[in-house]
Amino acid sequence: MAEKDTVKDQIVDAAKKRFSHFGYAKTTMAEVASDCAMSPGNLYRFFPGKLDIAEAIATEDYSKHLEHLRKIAVQPGKDARERLHQLLFEELRRTYHKLEKDPRAYEMARVISQERPKFANWMLENERKILVELLEEAERRGEFKMDDKQFTAEMVQAATMKFRYPQLWSKLTLPKLELELEGVMNLLINGLCPHAAEQRRTAQGEAA
Amino acid sequence: MAEKDTVKDQIVDAAKKRFSHFGYAKTTMAEVASDCAMSPGNLYRFFPGKLDIAEAIATEDYSKHLEHLRKIAVQPGKDARERLHQLLFEELRRTYHKLEKDPRAYEMARVISQERPKFANWMLENERKILVELLEEAERRGEFKMDDKQFTAEMVQAATMKFRYPQLWSKLTLPKLELELEGVMNLLINGLCPHAAEQRRTAQGEAA
DNA sequence: AGATTGAACGGTTTGTTGATTATTCAGAAA
DNA sequence: TTTCTGAATAATCAACAAACCGTTCAATCT
To answer: Measured at the alpha carbon of residue A183, what is the angle toward residues A140 and A105, in degrees to the nearest 5?
Structure first.
């Protein structure tokens, strides 16, 4: 049924327009159906429910973002620190801008994360995979050093949790948040223990 | 007016009983007043409002906790890593147990933090002061190394933010949370860069 | 048969009304 | 005067009804 995909796409398209214009809560299934010139009941042949349409939209959008992140993570000519830096900053900026410029999209993300914790978890996992790749390569090049890459990636995510949840920002501006992220990153990379800071530069030299 | 303090204490005592027994929302000013054998209106000679009574209770309780933390921070015979470890774990455990065993107290904390963001900020600041002291002493002993102690303390708090907000725990058990906190702490102290791990042990030796 | 409809069902939200309660304040009591 | 009261006020909450909307499915169409 190649047609089915087209219809699904049509539904997703219509819903995308409605959701971004009026918000998730304010658009009804009847409206989406009418935009597709079909009855409300017929939507359920293509999606289990309203939330699943939203999830499809979010997945599509998020996949693009993920690809973007992956590109950053494997950027040649930059050392691991720089790539990790850009990776985390990109996530912060995306969240911040979604919140500021696109409250509708943010509402949708909030609803989905709330009703489908699995989805939020899936996003974290995907980003973690990228992190793991970055960390593995960094260790191969001698830039970073760690025992368990998977666990370390989880810890990096735990330590940067604050920058993923706008509820924790309490009216902080983006520059202030960036300053904080910068500081946390430096701590994560260099640690508190005194040690030769030149090692970093050496590793960077090898990488180039 | 030495009497005023006594009356304030009496009010706080009565409110404490009511709040912990029935919860903040479910106790009325009239009840508290009646427990103190006075009229509701008279309470307002001693407190600006209901929330301020709760704040007084929370402040009293929190001050004890702070003192406890301060003792941990200056514990002799332990190196900075160990004291920082205990400090952060103590906070995690306190939050966790309040949530589990004393939902009333947790409700109150939630309401206060919500309505009085200043108060939540004040708590963070106080804990940060302790952190700064710990960091300063650790640097003096050569255990840690950093530029700006104040800023570093803020970053340590930012990186451990996840462990302060039960909303972010998503049904994680205490052992799992402790494992994560352990991991984040190791990252913060040792960093990702490869460096001589023995330096830590050396510093510990000097401290003993 | 398979695809589609749209009325019907049940859960949720919304709007309204009537308490309940925090807070105030004019005056009583000390 | 200073301290306190308790009725008055205004804001919030609870309960109930009506409307709405996501979802289902028996009936209709192709």
So the answer is: 90
CA nearest to A187 within chain B: B188
pTM beyond 0.90, yes or no: no
B51, closest nucleotide (Cα–C1'):
C22
Residues 107-126 of B with CB under 8 A from A: 117
- Three-state DSSP class for A147? coil
To the nearest whole angstrom, how far is the Cα of B168 from the nearest Cα of chain A?
Answer: 9
Buried b (16+ CB within 10 A) or exposed e, B99-114: eeeeebbbbbbebbbe
By CB atoms closer than 10 A (0-12, 13-18, 19+), residue A153 is: buried
pLDDT in tens, chain A (208 residues): 334 468 899 999 999 999 999 999 999 999 999 999 999 999 999 999 999 999 999 999 999 999 999 999 999 889 999 999 999 999 999 999 999 999 999 999 999 998 999 999 999 999 999 999 999 999 999 899 899 999 999 999 999 999 999 989 988 999 999 999 999 999 999 987 776 444 444 444 444 3
Count of CB atoms situated within 10 Å of the CB of A70: 17
| Environment class of B67 (CB within 10 Å of its CB; exposed 0-12, middle 13-18, buried 19+) | exposed
E strand or H helix at A63:
helix A50-73
Q: Say which amino acid occupies B150.
A: Q
Q: Which residues contact B162 (CB under 8 A, 6 or more apart)?
A: A158, A159, A161, A162, B168, B169, B180
